[in-house]
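Weekly modeling sync, notes
Attendees: S.R. (lead), two postdocs, one rotation student

Agenda item 3: backlog of single-chain predictions. S.R. asked that every request posted to the team notebook include the full sequence so nobody has to chase files. The rotation student volunteered to paste the first one in as an example of the format we agreed on. Action items at the bottom.

Example entry:
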Amino acid sequence: MIDYDPHHWRSHFFDLKGSMVREIAYRVGLCALIATAVSTADHYHWSVGLPDKAHTLLAPALGLLLVFRTNSANDRYVEGRRLWGGIVNTSRNLRRKATQLLAPEVAAHIVEWTVAFAWATRHHLNDKKELPEGLALPAESAATVLAANHPPTAAAFQISKILVEQRTAGKLTDIQHQMLDADVQALIDHLGGCERIKSTPLPFAYAVHLRRALILYCLTLPFALVDTFHDWTVVVSVLVSYVLIGIEEIGTEIEEPFGDRHNDLPLDRICTNLSAQLRDPSNTP
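Predicted structure, as returned to the notebook:
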């Protein structure tokens, strides 16, 4: 994620990183080439213009398609952040309850596995199997988690295993065990929500139809504009293509927000901050 000041408007006009300019340059460039050819032909009095009625009629439909595309992508982005907020809050609650109800060394063990769960989830959403360095966990248990088909679930299982052992030893009552286990279940639920977003992209038919309509509209737009704008056809066509193609690309960029792109969620930062908060002894009265 790119940090920026939303009130500092002027500097954003020249920003390239994260602005989708590089991603859409070749498509806008293709539109510019066609517009240049059409404008040149018109300059030499070759009649290449077409009636603009078709583009006028198609513009509202194309606008609705783009609005739905970006709204759907933004909903996924916001939902992804909401789910990770749930992971953070549930981890804090689990740490709070474990610290109050269990021996310090057991609570610290649960904290480490909670940190492992967050990082395992972060990497799992990028199709990786990794845990951060510096975890105060038995090497054998950490290796078992990494070797599992689904490391986040394996990390959550380790927390549940500790809770069962404490209940069996009489260190937790059934109600206390249920309270703590409810947080583990919530972590799994939030993980499942993230996986739902990742594994359910925008329906293929919708994406293909939108892109076909968009590229056909932009490539043929110069023919509809040339009789009105003449030598300015290139400028107008490039501006319209940049706006429309850019909107579609933004939707593509943010619809799966768990990667490492400029506009994705700052999951490394979230996990790092969560790890520091859970381990901070000053948070324990």
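Discussion: group reviewed the output briefly. The chain has ten helices and no strands.
Action items: rotation student to repeat for the remaining queue; S.R. to check formatting next week.
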